């Protein structure tokens, strides 16, 4: 099974056979530099509250974005940002939701890449492609009713926000796991598999359990979703509406005294 996380060395060896997407702002992409062969799809261009469920941009917007940078459904896509991968992970989840089969997160980010690999300010000329969205290979998005029913099941609900946010209000029975706990400060990439497994096990988030992820607007859970897929978790559900929808629909919240 292909790993959903790509190491910098692997990417350096395969730059000619993959498509690389940089989701930073255009001024960073153009002014600071980017990976060789990368195209720029800024985060704000694929986030919308007027598209599909949650913050998904809508199939038409997504199709136009990918066609504009020359990506086809058969491409292997590797995504990065300069924020430990959390914005890039959101692109990855969006791609999976719209049926892209092979998309991966660069382990680390732009700053980590620059330590051992070259960057460029050259602009890549790409021809517009033809792109069609499809059903996801493995459906993973869940809605309000599914999450509400999960409260009374043996599923583990995971809140990936900071501790103070969790204390101000969280779903009943949810465990708190700040997504940044899974990131290594030194490498800027993921902690080792052993460290990740230990952190998750301490919270009761084990591979044998059904896991339901949420945060505020489904950005931070994107990173945690990638980590769990990377570790081989098979029952990972992604609440796209997250607390934005949950609160709007008067879902029950618990506060910590």
Automatic annotation (TrEMBL):
Entry keyword annotation includes rRNA processing: no
Source organism's superkingdom? Archaea
Residue span, Rhodanese domain? 14-122, 151-255
The kind of enzyme this is, by top-level EC class, is transferase
Pfam families in the cross-refs? Rhodanese (PF00581)
- Keywords in alphabetical order, please: Repeat, Transferase
Q: Enumerate the CDD domains for this protein.
A: TST_Repeat_1, TST_Repeat_2
Q: Which GO terms of the molecular function aspect are on file?
A: transferase activity
Stated EC number for the protein is 2.8.1.-
SUPFAM superfamilies tied to this protein:
Rhodanese/Cell cycle control phosphatase
Specify the protein name.
Answer: Sulfurtransferase
Identify the species of origin. Answer: Salinirubrum litoreum
